[in-house]
Predict the structure.
Amino acid sequence: MPVVTLYFNRIKKILGRSIPKGKIIDTLPFIGLDIEDETTDHVNVEYSPNRPDYSTDYGIITGLQGLLGIKLGMPVLKIKNGKYSIKADPSVCRVRPYVTAIEARNGKLDDETIRQIITMQEDLHNGLGRRRKKASIGIHDIEKIKFPLYYKTVTREHSFIPLESDVSMTVKEILEKTETGKKYKHILDGHAKVPIVVDSDEKTISLPPVANAKLTEMNTKTRNLLVEVTATDKNAAEGVLAVIANTLQIAGFQLYSVKITGAGNSTPVLKSRDLVLEPDLVNKTLGIEISNQLIVKSLKKSRLDAKLRGKKIVCSIPRYRTDIFGVMDLVEEVALGYGIQNLTPTMPESVSAGERNHTTKTLETVRSLMIGLGYLEVMNFELTSKEILYDKTGRESSKIISVADSKSQEHIILRDMLLPGMMEVLSRNIHESYPQKIFEIGTVFEKDSLIKEGIHLACLSAHKDVNFTEVKSVLQSLLKTGFNLSCNTVPQKEPMYVDGRTGSIVINDKKIGSLGEIDTKVADNFKLRTPVAGFEITLTDLLF
Amino acid sequence: MSQVLHPIEQKILKTLNDKKNLTPEELATITKLSLDQIRRGIEWLKFKNLASVVESEKNLITLGKRGTEAFEKGFPERQLINHLRSLDGYSCEMNDVKNFLKNEFGPAIANAKKNGWVEIHENRIMLKGYHDVTSEEKIIKTISKNPTGISLDEFEDKNAVESLKKRPEFIVVSSKKSALVSLTENGIEAAKSVPDNIDFESVSETSTGVEPGAKVVRAIDVEATAPIIFAAKSHPLRDVIDEVREIFVSLGFSEIIGNNVQSSFWNFDALFTPQDHPAREMQDTFYLKDVKANNIAKPDQIKKVSDAHKKGWNYQWQNEEARKLVLRTHTTCVTIRALADQKHDEARLFSIGRVFRNEKLSYKHLAEFHQVEGVVVGKNVTLRDLMGLQTEFYHKMGIKKIKFWPTFFPYTEPSLQSMIYNEKLGKWVELFGMGIFRPEVTKPLGIKNPVLAWGGGIERIAMLRYGLEDVRELYENKFGWLRSVPKCQ
């Protein structure tokens, strides 16, 4: 989850008053933020990506103001009519159809404010922007731009100086050579022409969704900004713009509209929307009985607007709250405003007697039998490696089931058998005293036309006198005491076992597993010097 | 004295009472017990404060090369006089003797003269005096009987020993560390009650007042330590899983199980997670290669779920995307499917099983772990009920201090997380999450009543329970740990 750094001196400045540090720390979790760590001058908090308005300290302080009762209700965007415009060319429709923008004037940027804005930009790119695929942002020094702006497409030979560089590069070069280019070029795959935003002097200010131009880079001297968002989804574009506009307004900027025209685009409105909430739903869901007035107040503490209309509550939601889908989201807002700590737990009456699953019961029985036979339970991962599963055991690997792009080399293949992992366990314990007797009950996977899951039981016995007969005895007792079954063991050849000391386990003409003495070469691959014997059976075949 | 003594102990006590300080080796020789038995016996006696052991250093003498020759063929001076005796007139020329004794000539003459056995006149050697066996010869003979060496202190004629030391390669003196065993005062006292006939049979007819004629089992040392054997048992993580399961059952929940491999439809789509959501990307989720699901759900379920996505998230829902097979990222896919298929109006269900995340393994992250999830369906269930169930669960786990914070989960609204106070760590720890299924989840699947859902990872509880700092230890299966973790915690 993304992290925001909150400096206490900035909190004081933005709030315009001093709140004890302890009170701030105690309140943060109750607006849904997780405290990562704290020092004397700052605290790092994690926020959930569904609340991009918490991606800066400005947004978090807005939330705190509500819960602390300093400021209630919805922050209203004050957008004056601006003089600038962007015209979209129909050619963008095929690649990235939507553009929207806002102008923010007369603000002050210090290093920390710039850092907060850039962090917000990245978090929005990753969250609402779906790693820039759905929406991406350019924030520019407006004084460097000659309006009107044009949103259009150009060939990949088009060139300008991108933010990361000091020299002019072609689009092709930017996509191939720069870090961000390599990371996001896939979004433009399949499009010969790419979208750009250019000004009236034909100067490029951005190449969405990859790079902005060096020309319009903001710094601590910048006072007036242009925020431009391009997207494949108009709703997402305006949601992103609303979060930034709200943040910049709290940061002290004045907002002006930018006129957007062309190719189905229009000037963003960024106005709030209303939802009607039944007080009964709130009380019934939360298990409380609070007055309509208290519901209204709680919503306002969550920085929404609310008023009573007859027996219902009309709730206004600011445009930047993209996380609110319907009334149930408002119920949560009431809970937060009311205070989670004020909800006391209640115990519902049970309507039924609980029960373990039938499979669970049977597996527990098998487990207790194996323990009774002197075997220690081990637990291995279901995802393992080709090395352990096939290479070291000399087994054939044509039906391998692997996962895509695992971050760990040891966890790529779904096991089709338990014994290899258990051999690895013995291998890790060669310095421990013998005899070593272990068993495992676990899920294994088999590739058919689909993936079949089964539950296996396997055991291994390792000591200097171990042999076929010992493990066959264990198998027979298990089958007899557990299921009143007897089995035949039929000679077979299996790569894991010694030839002439292995058999397939057959019950009622059906093979349910194998047993035998483990081949010394296999044991050697696991660095085992002690003789090992064991068996593995499919419990699923046996029981269900 | 009430102590029961093993025959070995009795033997050692008796022997040490006769001869004060002995090495274990000497004890073995005298008692005719094996050295192992003696060592064991000494340990027992030491433990009971009947014997004490002092480590000491002894000078031991063994025969050198010439000493062995001297023992076999006689000392050079003895050979000389034997030679002279065989001659007429008991005398001969010096040169004859030289030829006969070769290198030993010098020492032979010198020692024979020293012993007063010969006289030399004008190059002729003549026998004289008595030729008794010398102290040196006696010493060599004694040493030869003790090939492992004999203590220097055994010999009274120190001068003779000194002179032997001076003769090259006759004797070798080496120091050897050894333990000297002696009795303590308690030991001397205990030795008094040792019977003369020490009984090594396992059964005797002596001792306590049982029926005449009955065979009596000889008493053994019940205080002695016995070897450790390791009980076969279930895995410690399994014990925590079983405990959690038992608590759910006791709270009225019935267990359901499902597959580890699920279609994206049930793992994500049915839970209102949009198809372009970052959580669905490969860097967080394990997708199976080269295989897709066929019949993911009933046509009606697919249609309604896809409609909810289109309405809520405003994008083109893809059936292909929903067919991708994943290793389930939570057990919620199992519970939601059960609810969707069975349409309970009132129910308490739970599921425990493995879940998977594409994570790099670290001390706090696994790619595969166990999760439990419970759901309560009911007309009148509330968020406070959910908090109550959670509180009850923790109480049954022995956790008393609990608090709730708001949080976010994609498929529940409202959502809470529970924090528990861990006494060992002295801090609040995040544990189970919970919430009420969103209408966007329940409505398309035809679930009418509210559904409370709660759950979380079990390894985390196991770590707290067993005091582990590295979650990977749970899956390392080190016997040292598996064998030693107490079963009752």
